[in-house]
UniProtKB/TrEMBL annotation:
Protein name, per record: Aminotransferase class I and II
Keyword Transferase: yes
This protein's UniProt keywords: Aminotransferase, Pyridoxal phosphate, Transferase
GO annotation, biological process: biotin biosynthetic process
UniProt similarity note: Belongs to the class-II pyridoxal-phosphate-dependent aminotransferase family. BioF subfamily.
PANTHER family: 8-AMINO-7-OXONONANOATE SYNTHASE, CLASS II AMINOTRANSFERASE/8-AMINO-7-OXONONANOATE SYNTHASE
Protein source organism: Coniochaeta hoffmannii
Stretches assigned to the Aminotransferase class I/classII large domain: 58-431
The organism's place on the tree of life at top rank: Eukaryota
Signal peptide bounds: none
Amino acid sequence: MSLATQVPMLAEWVKAQEVKGAKLKNASVFNRNLEEMLDMRRAEQKLITLRKIGPNSDFSSNDFLSLGSSGILRTAFLEELARLPNFNVGSTGSRLLSGNNDYIETLENEIAEFHGSEKALIVNSGFEGNCSIFSTVPRAGDVIVYDELVHASVHEGMARSAVIVREPFRHNDVESFRDTLESILETQALIRDGHRCVIIAVETIYSMDGDVTPLKDLVEVAKELFPAGNAQFVVDEAHSTGVVGPKGAGLVCSLGLQKDVAIRLHTFSKALSGSGGVILCNDTVRTTLINNARPLYFTASPSYPTLAAIKAGYRLLKEGATEQAQQTLQDRIKLFLTTLSSHPAYDRAVDAGIFHVPLMEGWESKPFLTQIVPIITPEKHNYFLTFHLQLLKMSAYPVDFPVVPKGESRVRLVFKATNTPQEIVELANAICEWGDEMLEIKRGGKTGTLPKAARQVYSWLAAGANTNGFH
Ligand SMILES: Cc1ncc(COP(=O)(O)O)c(C=O)c1O
């Protein structure tokens, strides 16, 4: 059977890694310059390609509650469209010009109420939301303190802000957070004297690590060191929206910290299976954003169908229609962790450094489990594991530097409510079987020997391209 028939996604990826090199001789300078840069990625078999999951078991999409794949959201969405049969499909303009209307304002009020927030401001994407917040809210003289693993969109926003001092703290490390705040108090007189603010950026569930911010502890430290309230939090709920807290209202709601967090960002592109985001804040912050956020006013407001999908998603949350999926998701993650850790090969593989699963530590005592589970491997081995899974028709993807720190290559697994127990058990078994295969290779001292799936993929690759960089 050919590669194209066996695993179409892999076939496309293999084909795309072929270095173009000499074939570019007659290309325009414009294209050649770009292709040369892409060739550097191809030479390492790291060209990113757009891929489709196809019929594979899905361990990569963000449809955590399966609202999209199950069709539940479609039904609610079509019902919502039917309520306004004469709707205007287009957005008609920027929110500041013609793009504002009763529908979006009512929806914002409903969303604010659901999450226990004074106000809400809908944006076209979570990325745009973070860019708007961080480029606009921190004023000159403020300091931004951020968890070292915050999302790229926060960095994008920070880079556009007027803030000069931006201090990372060690990921999820409360002591490092405290040290960072203390050193700011020592060095920044305007902040110490209460004339300027510290804006703190954290995520609820980290997108590449799947671990949860110790938000309650961080809030306590900030309150202790800044009793005047000039240290304020911006919490990104992208991965907790819909899956954490009462009816999926998020981590801040589940911890009762609505009054302690100045700004929250929820995204609709993940568990809510739509697109867009919402900034939850007070009236002052909302007005500040409307007046200053370039990502907001130099773009059209979300179109009516986009808003209708968001409204339909929130209706499902509010009615409790997603609670069963929330519970099922928890059960599936639990099944995965149990099956993986009780497999006879698991300890062997972990002890030998073939892979490890940081989230395995103490998972039984966590208040909830997270749907993002990275399997950390040595560099390139994350590709070997991906090939192994893809050939078994399981979709999961490798992640490397610069998306994650060097030395922390991984296969990022993402679970959703409609993953069947059988799929989950097969996945856990497949990972451990691959672990055993790698262990055999390691024990045999045969450096450079590839595991079976990688051999197969590279033989396809070698038929049409070079294999530099894999051995
Ligand atoms: C933590 C976090 N924040 C924000 C975003 C951006 O969200 P959106 O897809 O709505 O632009 C993402 C998406 O990957 C994310 O993981």
